[in-house]
Amino acid sequence: MTVTSEAVIIGGGVMGASILYSLAAGGVRSPVLLERDTLGSGSTGRSSGAIRMHYSTEVNARLAWESLAVFRNWGDAVGGDGDPGFVETGYMVFAPQHEAAGFFQNIEMQRRVGIDTRIVDWVEARELAPAFHLGEDERFAWEAQSGHGDPSGTALAFVSRARELGASVSLESPATRVAIRGGRVAGVETANETYETDTAVVATGPWSSRFLRGLGVELPLMPTRHEVILIRRSETGVGYHPGGGDMANLIYFRPEADNLTLVGNGNREEEADPDTYNQRASTDFVQDVWGRLARRIPGIEDGRLAHGYAGLYTTTPDLHPVMDRVDGIEGLYVCTGFSGHGFKLAPAVGVCMAELILDGEAKLVDISPLRMGRFSDGSLNTTQYSFKVIA
Ligand SMILES: Cc1cc2nc3c(=O)[nH]c(=O)nc-3n(C[C@H](O)[C@H](O)[C@H](O)COP(=O)(O)OP(=O)(O)OC[C@H]3O[C@@H](n4cnc5c(N)ncnc54)[C@H](O)[C@@H]3O)c2cc1C
Fold first, then answer.
1. For 390, which DSSP code?
2. How many angstroms separate the alpha carbon of residue 309 from the centre of ligand 1?
3. Is the N or the C terminus of the chain less surrounded, counting Cβ atoms within 10 Å?
4. What is the pTM of this model?
């Protein structure tokens, strides 16, 4: 069957869902989302959902801050019956003394952007989070409004609202081909349908390098495997605690429900095949990351392992995403490479991609640092002090 659509988005993770919503809200009639499997079945469904603002580059900080406003005011900003599951927990960033200069620089930049973050001293950090062990020579920042959300729930909430605005979604429908005629997008094909369109957005997460290669587009995108565990705190004496990004122990963590702590890490990763990778957490990881968490939250070593799993980041050489139009193929756009920190950016990413498509340029945030060409022209997003706890 042949269907005509003003825009086709390929990939039903949180990015595809957010773009679909923003296009529908921006007046695009009947945009279509194609998903290979089910909504959120890629990185999104395995995301830790942390929503924090600490970044070392302005572009990421702005995307995070604009997105936080949406997570916190979903009803007004997006509407519909969906719920991104935002929980405000507060978020503490820990930096060792030898990283202090770059850490302060980051906070300064974030405050210039307008982010609600501030340096706190040892005494105040202790009051804010009595569960944490705090080193005498460490530095701390506090983001009062940060927390976490539900990544799959957010994707579903975007899609539900987009459908109310006229969008449609086709699940279990992998895009097999983007038809390009005369240097322009002419359509997108699945096994059973042909979508006639002049606009296609590739938001295929860890499958992106493979999919783009099929279109003759080469990008340095690598799927990497990352593990997460959840520890039950009952009977440990460790109470509720805020979220945290811990540069000393290279972990991030957050509370989940009443008595669980979720923890992941920033320094263990391996390249993986998105179709065949091992989705379970390894014993070695459990021991390593739990030990590191216990250095920050003493007593948690007596908890019980509740769950563990692995998911995929889509990494780029500078750990920044790619949001751009593809030079030489009119109507083709790319939105991928969000590494371990895309969920929290998704609302603003959708707006910026819709602006790029509809107005020729993103206005909410200047996304020019995220252009494709940076990998070949050497203008990578590298900063003196990048935040390596990537979630
Ligand atoms: C373990 C883990 C922890 C994380 N923790 C955090 C965190 O705490 N905070 C945070 O902000 N971010 C976090 N992230 C990162 C975040 O989850 C991702 O950046 C984000 O989900 C990426 O969304 P996406 O839509 O680009 O990709 P995906 O969610 O992977 O979506 C891509 C979709 O495309 C589909 N697809 C692929 N090929 C095709 C095709 N040919 N046709 C149709 N569909 C196709 C896939 O099935 C998939 O559903 C984490 C990620 C992982 C794995």
1. -
2. 15
3. N
4. 0.98
